[in-house]
Amino acid sequence: MLSQRRFDNLPWGMVFLVFTISLIGIAAVYSATYTSRGPSSLFTKQLVWVSIGLIVMFLALIPDYHTVGRYAYVLYALSLVLLFLVMVMGKTGMGAQRWLAIGPFAFQPSELAKLSLTLALARYFAEDPKQGNYELKDLAVPAVMVLIPLMLVLKQPDLGTAIMLFLTSSIIVMLAGIRLRSVVIVFLIGATIASLVFLVSPVRHKIWGSLKPYQQNRIKAFIDPGSDPLGSGYHANQSKISVGSGQITGRGYRKGTQSQMAFLPERHTDFIFAVIAEETGLVGSSVLLFLYLILLLIGVDTAKNAKDRLGVLMAGGIVSMLSLYVFINIGMSVGIVPVVGVPLPLVSYGGTSIIATFLSLGILLNIQSRRFMLFY
Amino acid sequence: MDQQQESISGILRRLPLLAAFIILLAVLLFIRLWYLQAIKGEYYHEQAENNRIRPVKLRPPRGIIYDRSGRPLVENELVFDVSLIPEDTQNLDATIEKLSAIVKIAPDSIRKTLDDANDVRTTYDPVKIQEEAPWDEVARVEAHLDDLPGAIIEPEHRRHYPYAGLAAHQLGYIGKVTQSQHKKDQTDLGILTGQGGLEKVYDKLLRGVAGKRMIQVNAAGRKVKDLGIEEPRPGTDIYLTIDLDAQKAAEEGLGSRAGAVVAMDPDTGEILALASHPAYDPNIFPRGISPKDWVQLMNDPKHPMYNRAIQSVYPPGSTFKIIVALAGLDSGVIKLDDTVYCKGFLTSGRHSYRCWKKGGHGPISFHRALVESCDVYFYTMGDRIGWDRVAEYARKLGYGSLTGILLPDEKPGLIPTTAWKKKRTGETWYPGDTYINSIGQGFVLVSPIQACQMISVVANGGHFHPPLLLKQTRNRETGEVRMFSPEHTRSITLDSRALEEVRNALVGVVNEPGGTAHGAATPLAMVAGKTGTAQVIAQKVAGRKLSEETNDHAWFVAYAPVDHPKIAVAVLVEHGGHGGSAAAPVAKKVIEEYLKNVEPKTVR
Lengths: 376, 604
Fold this sequence. Notes:
- Chain A is mainly α.
- Chain A has 16 helices and three strands.
- Chain A has helices spanning about 5-10, 10-35, 40-60, 65-70, 70-90, 110-125, 140-155, 160-175, 180-200, 200-210, 215-225, 235-245, 255-260, 270-305, 310-335, 350-370; strands spanning about 90-95, 95-100, 105.
């Protein structure tokens, strides 16, 4: 299993951070889902998920991460199959088809897809003979690798995860090394398409029409939150009120009126940060933000110390992915990012997301623990 | 190794950028948190304190169900419920005590109602304490609202079925949303949804879309300000194909007897009347039926919830002779002039098969045999045609398969074949089986709606229109009307001479001397039809007094007017006795009531 040497090499600070953030999450879910009849079963489930997650994280230390890399494409293919299954036979919730029922559990393959895509891209760029200085024409294969899960996820439709897949992949490509000229070209093409979409009304209507009403409303509400404070702007508004009303020291654990009186929607999942901010104030919210920051920077350090290209890209990709989730989720809660519905890693309620996050962290730890090992 | 290091050095150079990016975002978020919590904290704190904005659900009125000419079959009555929002009172017990005195419900049972509701409601959802409160209670609660923090009066639309049991099996009923429905599609637990019949089939249309009003309330939960309203979208009205007059005639015709009536427009498949007796009163459901009443209803030996028109199958009796007649003429086995000598019975081996007419009909040919319903003639012809060929024609005319009516649990009945019997019982098909099945006894089973469709196809010359219940819908907001045009699924080809001869004989059944259904004749139009008397027990024992349960089922299938049929009817009266005397007069009433309203000039 683990050699003494690797055990010593384990970044125990990182393990401690992960553990602390998960505990904060459990406490927040407890508070957010507390009912007049006592703790909700969601809290117990969250406990179970985090425990399983911790086990998964340590199990991820056993194989050499090169083995993980070797199976990256298999994992990627598996997640595509699962995404496809969701489309065919998935469970529907909130106007989208995102879950696969496995016995009593609802499994969300898009959560697995984000990790497997990251790993698959890391392996691709690690093995690619070109090793950097990519131009657009070199990126056809990775583009297809990104587009397939992206389309499947959009079809559900899960705009939030689709955006995350796109942004994560973009950062990985930049890490792998893309020529500045290509970045500029992509940017210009993107800007052109965006302005076309905005300026040419038939195109705009077509794209706009393909969005679900709730997605349209969320975008409208982000552009002008005042337009419909009782309808779709409600989420964003209530979340801002929750965060702000926490002031410096917070309203006290389980004493947040926004969270406890059900003004705040999706409070145990997408808006869990608002619950923490309301109940623990600026003190609590900035401590949590700081914990995430340290965790992510340790992740960057892991990438820096990795002994080969695969390790660097895997670690870098995972850190990029986690950072995006953390920042977009918190950004959403404080009203500077549209409400796209992405979970806060380790804290938001949700089984698949938690397991996937712990698995990602386990791979990071794995890379970190082998940083001093030489080739044999 | 060197090469390795070289290849990652590029990435390593970019990693600090990633770290910088992460730090930048964290700082940005921290500034935002600082702004929201430290600088604007007081403002948001106040907002949270005054966050007494509350959504109030506005429930839409359910769509009205009309008959084909726009007469309402259900109504929405405005009623007032006394409800309680426990979150809006500091002293729940005081409110409960005071409220209890007004609505005359014990405080403990109010507490229990609240407790039960807690499992499913969300915060600030009102809990109904007294539904359809009498006027004086509403007035007293209204007058004492200030002393009753948390109590409110909720206006609601309550479903009312003005004709009680009329068309109950078609209309269905509405009831509380079940837990499983709520889980499945988040159906609002506070509304009543269709739980049976067309109320269920067209529930999505009838239900409408709930709206909401956002209100600002004070500490006692009383509205201070209206902040916005999202109007509910009323349910869509639906117009059925049934004709209220024909339906009433069917219901009255059956009266207290168990049975079913189905009437249909042969040109379109539109159901003009569909009745099943005994019926139930759908008005008992919307208020919530007590478990005791429910058990009683389900265990009622007469099965009032059962839609006999589509869910019950019976031996068709002599109405089945229409099939044998068509099979014989179309296949050329029966010649019009062939006579059979009926001496009152037919012997085969050691068994003897009787004709209903004890003395026998003497020599008899096709036309008179069908008019007088001679059993011996049809024993003989069934045998000559061969049973499997008869069965083939029966299937062609829709027997043995579902008509596809949009009501739940339709039964297909049974058209046996020789192979079926072998497989089912292991015995071969005897000539005796052919005899008794040829007169609609034995294994053959059909439902009243199948019988109606069969006679309709005979009337219209071979065209199948699936039974249609919905004529049009009308959106109450936009006034937009959607018509539902009849479908045409298939046509069967039958020799036109054969059809003509059968129809002539059916006219004779009602209008010629010796015909079995004079009771169906009406001055309004020429009626054609066929009686049937389905034996419940194999042979009656002479002299023994029979109880009602062993009385024969009475059948009558008919259409009118003969030249341009506008209505086809099937009547079944359980244990009604003879088809001519028990069932034919019911059909006559239905036909009269329908035809008197149809413009005489609109002959298609």
